[in-house]
Every structure is written in C-alpha cells, then in structure tokens.
Amino acid sequence: MGGRLEGKVAFVTGGRGGIGRAICARFVREGATVYAADLSDAGSMGAALANNGSFVRLDVTSEEEAIAAMAEVERTSGKLDILVNAAGIELEKTIEHTTLEEWNRSFAVNVTGTFLASKHALRLLRKAAAGGTTASIINFGSYDGFIADPGLAAYCATKGAVHALTRAMAVDHGPEGIRVNAICPGYVDTPMLQGFFSGAGSGGGGGTIDSLKEAVRNVHPIRNYGTPDDIANLVNWLASDEARYATGQLWVLDGGLSAQVQQMRL
Questions:
Q1: Which of these is catalytic: 35, 143, 155, 187?
Q2: Which of 97, 150, 240, 263 is the most core-located residue (most Cβ within 10 A)?
Q3: Domain locations in the chain?
Q4: Fold (topology level) of 9-188+227-254
C-alpha cells in the first residue's frame, strides 16, 4: 500500500537541518521523491542519514542557485508537487545591538529565501497542478511572528513578513491550483533551540536545553515542547491531497503556549 504522497515530488529547503531533515524523512516514508536542499549534505545535524532525500546544494539567498536547483528538479523529475521553505536563521539581539549586515542577512535567509525558492518553483508547481490535484507550498513562520520573545527583534520581524507573504501567495496562486500555507512553530528541540538557550540572548541565561527541560515543559499548557517529527506530521498533511481545501492559513503549532495569559502561570 502506497503512502499519502505516493508519486509526488517534494523540494525542502533547509532539508538537512533539524526540522527539514524530519520532513524529508517523513516524505520519503510517504512515498514521495524528495530533494533535500541545503548548504551541505551534513547540514546543522552532522552526517547525512540514509533514506532522507537526494541532496541538492542551495544557498537560499542566491537567485542563481535557486534557478539551478529547480532546473535539476525539472531535469530529473519533470514537475514539483510540494515546496517546503524550511531554511531559516535566528539572531539573538535587540535592534540596538543588531548591525545592518545582521538585519539584512536575517531577511535574506528567512524572507528572500522563501521568495526565491517559491518564485522559481512556480512553473513546476503549475505543471503538477495541471494534472488535476493541487500543488502545495509550505512556508515556515513562527509563533514569534504573532508575539515576541525578548531579544529576537530581527527574527520576529522576518517571521511576520513570511506570514504576510504566505497570505499574498495563497491569494495570487490559488486560482492556478497552488495552495500556500505557513507553519508557525513554538519551541521545538532543534540545534536552533539549543543555540537559543545557550546563547547570550534571552533564552536561558547561558544554560542548555538539558538544564532547562523542566522549565521549558512547564511554560506550556501541554507541559512539553515540540520535536521535529511533530512539525513533520503537520507538514505531511498540508502537503497531501487531504488538505485540498487548506490554503492561506498560519498554522500555529506550539503546545498551547500562545493561547495562555503568561501572567497567570502561577
């Protein structure tokens, strides 16, 4: 029996990172042909794993590389059903301490990267949609695009931009059979989260995720933080034909964190 994505072709930016790697692995299990795009095959997680998609070199800030990556997909697969824009970076600074270079780099990766991959994937996505099903773009926003963690000004700004871009893309390309949604995670156990807790910003005063596990769990109504597989589960559904009516939405997946009044956690 085939998986939910049998016969589909998927392209995942940040595909060798924490969340991206989990998405690629899930897509492979569901029967998709998967291209894992990243700066290196090892990515932020170390050595590459088997059965985790074909590696494609991509700097998401480079239009030349975005064009070349989509040309490779067309040459080898002829179409694209699913684009996941999971590449992203985080900067732990207030605007006062953020340099212009750091600000521009944050937007280049998180926003321009989403724009470039989507722009140059559209022709292939239209080909897939012409086959009678919808194609799917899944962007990565954040709960920090709605509310703000202290010391993440540029990151929060980029995620708010991704949220607005997602809605605009859904409106523009829905008539072409292309659905566009954004997933907005909260705390997820990835190298980015571990860096947040051990960094100089607001995350944990120089602690690590191990020393802060209990505190992280307790801040959530569900009393736990997320895993990359939790995110991959929602991505998998949004990528599938079961989500044919889902577009233009910002799907918050944060263990209920943003639902509660923080002052009432006594």
A1: 155
A2: 240
A3: 9-188+227-254
A4: Rossmann fold (3.40.50)
